[in-house]
Known about the structure:
The protein has 162 residues and is mainly α.
Amino acid sequence: xxxxxxxxxxxxxxxxxxxxxxxxxxxxxxxxxxxxxxxxxxxxxxxxxxxxxxxxxxxxxxxxxxxxxxxxxxxxxxxxxxxxxxxxxxxxxxxxxxxxxxxxxxxxxxxxxxxxxxxxxxxxxxxxxxxxxxxxxxxxxxxxxxxxxxxxxxxxxxxxxx
Length: 162
């Protein structure tokens, strides 16, 4: 089954759809983990930021594994520590998009309703962070770190492999 021909077909591909599915799964894990942790006796009575940090950590493990095993399964990552480190850094930067859009909306524009906060953080910020994550994962995290092997196949030479 191939992608439908249309204006978005140039931009939507299997990798992007898999990335979005993995991200959606991570989002569900994040929200479920947060609420589960908030309902436990040992985290239910303390500042919710502890549960938030733990939930984000659990969701990052899920999304890293999903992206490594599904989205970029054919890419060879030679250095896993580098890959995981970059993944965490770019996730934190992606989270910054959500926080920044919330600060702009809530503090600078004065849109202080719960609806406005949710739209700015969980729609606008999440969308910007998702675009950034897809770009940074493709470009830096899961990109091959070594050049392709040299080959004498004429088809490879036409494709730019030396």
